[in-house]
Amino acid sequence: xxxxxxxxxxxxxxxxxxxxxxxxxxxxxxxxxxxxxxxxxxxxxxxxxxxxxxxxxxxxxxxxxxxxxxxxxxxxxxxxxxxxxxxxxxxxxxxxxxxxxxxxxxxxxxxxxxxxxxxxxxxxxxxxxxxxxxxxxxxxxxxxxxxxxxxxxxxxxxxxxxxxxxxxxxxxxxxxxxxxxxxxxxxxxxxxxxxxxxxxxxxxxxxxxxxxxxxxxxxxxxxxxxxxxxxxxxxxxxxxxxxxxxxxxxxxxxxxxxxxxxxxxxxxxxxxxxxxxxxxxxxxxxxxxxxxxxxxxxxxxxxxxxxxxxxxxxxxxxxxxxxxxxxxxxxxxxxxxxxxxxxxxxxxxxxxxxxxxxxxxxxxxxxxxxxxxxxxxxxxxxxxxxxxxxxxxxxxxxxxxxxxxxxxxxxxxxxxxxxxxxxxxxxxxxxxxxxxxxxxxxxxxxxxxxxxxxxxxxxxxxxxxxxxxxxxxxxxxxxxxxxxxxxxxxxxxxxxxxxxxxxxxxxxxxxxxxxxxxxxxxxxxxxxxxxxxxxxxxxxxxxxxxxxxxxxxxxxxxxxxxxxxxxxxxxxxxxxxxxxxxxxxxxxxxxxxx
Length: 594
Ligand SMILES: C[S@@+](CC[C@H](N)C(=O)[O-])C[C@H]1O[C@@H](n2cnc3c(N)ncnc32)[C@H](O)[C@@H]1O
Description:
This protein is α+β, with helices and mostly antiparallel strands. It folds into three domains: about 5-50, no CATH class; about 60-360, Vaccinia Virus protein VP39 (Rossmann fold, 3-Layer(aba) Sandwich), CATH 3.40.50; about 370-425 and about 465-585, Adenine-n6-DNA-methyltransferase Taqi, Chain A, domain 2 (Adenine-n6-DNA-methyltransferase TaqI, Chain A, domain 2, Alpha-Beta Complex), CATH 3.90.220.10. Strands 7-6-5-9-10-12-11-13-15-14 form a ten-stranded mixed β-sheet, with helices on both faces. Helix 3 links the parallel strand 5 (about 90-95) and strand 6. The site of S-adenosylmethionine has 22 residues, from strand 6.
């Protein structure tokens, strides 16, 4: 019998746990498909490497403790409140430290038992906490004992509960019960994977398939916490929110977008949320297991605090769809979260709500329906050789007029006379023997050309540019868009030049390019790029193809001739205000939120 590693481990695991709800999955156990059936393999040897379990107690383990009001907010947000029968739920604190979350969890659990007249021993299975460091576990157990004895429970029961509830363990490597937890709350450690000893790092990567690249430990905490949830269960973490946008968060984004519901993200970047100052870009994130529901996004100022936290929690519970703007925070409700593993957008809650609305209701700029395409100009690897004003270096048909960033600064193409010495024709790379002047020129510059990576990889094609020239692009009307500007700057080339590498281009069969140019000139189009791109210092934006493709546009067929003419006119006059006003109307928006 043969098996293959299951392609989507998380998806299969979650399917599996639906049928076998309380299965214990050994950390790092390989989920495999046996002839189409799902099965679990025993934990692979790497996880049993004793070195993976060695802990240097004096090392860096991300011990940053959470302030009580933040903990209370998270417990309220996930509904861990004493009006519920908390002894019947399973709550998990995966990295308890000295008990910032554990204390309030135990207080609420104890109060819930009292309210229902249940002995606290009924809650033996209701709480699980762990920490890597024995000293932290000791202090947490002492805290549990203090809280419960103050609450009048018998010392014998209390001590037994404390040692059962709080364990020394590595959350990422301990056996995990899939589909067993109602809530997982905490503040996972901020430790970069590359700062973890090698054997443990290998075991982590093996146990948590979302921990890729330069991942941070918290990514694994999210993965394991999510996998441990029952249907309807919730994870509520205060944690860095970089995974929502950066490269290493890709698999975690895919896992969340594919199988969970991101219910809430409160950015708390400047808030004093921890007992010491850290620059971690934290956010409170609540994710539940189940189909994606509406999602609240909120942003806070540095002075956001206890009172604001209760107001915000009320807004979250209310289901209110209107944007809420208070002095210290702003919150919006999106109909659902963003899809896929591509970077999720950033911005004020009102901006995000707008982006979500546009993404849900308008087609993307690059679209087969309008035959619209976004691309980048040619990279050569040796601009000093390939780009020249000297028309004698090659046969005239081998010289391609090239537009550069400076050529379009005025808003029109004012070609500066540069050519690409073009080694391509429509059939591919030309034969040098057919073009003696070109051959001579490239031979004269062979040293520079051959030392480029692209030439080293393909020595017999040593005179190619990195990108091949797209047949017909020079002669096609196109919008040219320079990278690295504060706002979008689309310029129409009627079909006279080929774009250089710092220029992106948009071609289309379905759009009048002046009308499309007007839309792209509007601040709505720039808002998309602002939401998705990583801003450079000073607020410069990157207008790269990946961000331009995120822009949504109205359907050209649904636009009145009057609006189309007005947009084209605004484009011709470079009138951003008018273009924005028309665009807002076409997108059925009242204003462009800040
Ligand atoms: C950011 S602190 C948070 C502590 C506590 N939850 C709080 O909010 O104050 C993270 C804790 O994780 C613990 N830790 C680090 N790596 C761990 C691991 N692999 N498994 C369990 N705990 C870990 C650290 O010892 C530290 O106490």
